[in-house]
Amino acid sequence: xxxxxxxxxxxxxxxxxxxxxxxxxxxxxxxxxxxxxxxxxxxxxxxxxxxxxxxxxxxxxxxxxxxxxxxxxxxxxxxxxxxxxxxxxxxxxxxxxxxxxxxxxxxxxxxxxxxxxxxxxxxxxxxxxxxxxxxxxxxxxxxxxxxxxxxxxxxx
Length: 156
What we know:
Blueprint: E1 2-8, H1 14-27, E2 33-38, H2 49-61, E3 69-79, H3 82-95, E4 98-103, H4 111-116, E5 119-122, H5 130-148
Helix pairs in contact: 1-5, 3-5
């Protein structure tokens, strides 16, 4: 199963970028993994939040294929402990050809993206910056890979 993480906008903090790249490389040892950045919208002052979400949604959906399992990282999604997320990921590996995770822009997702998604996952009840969520999710995906393989990275 190929796994894709779609991000809206570049990671601005170079320190976070280095850490994210490290986890992306680590994940690549366990599964085919790709990070795709959808360009941040320009000249948005004249656009409402809904219009921005719609335009970002169009850009996101261009990267989603008809048979993909689309998972939104969303505050209203299902919360997992790390072991539970690893079990969910392992099930997806047997059910999905391509698993696509999306971290949206600052206003969330358009209704079109919500309609297309197959699942929503919340990393926490707390709010993180969209920049920080990238790192937290990459680490959790790597952790799930090590749990599935029975490696000693995760401790109960």
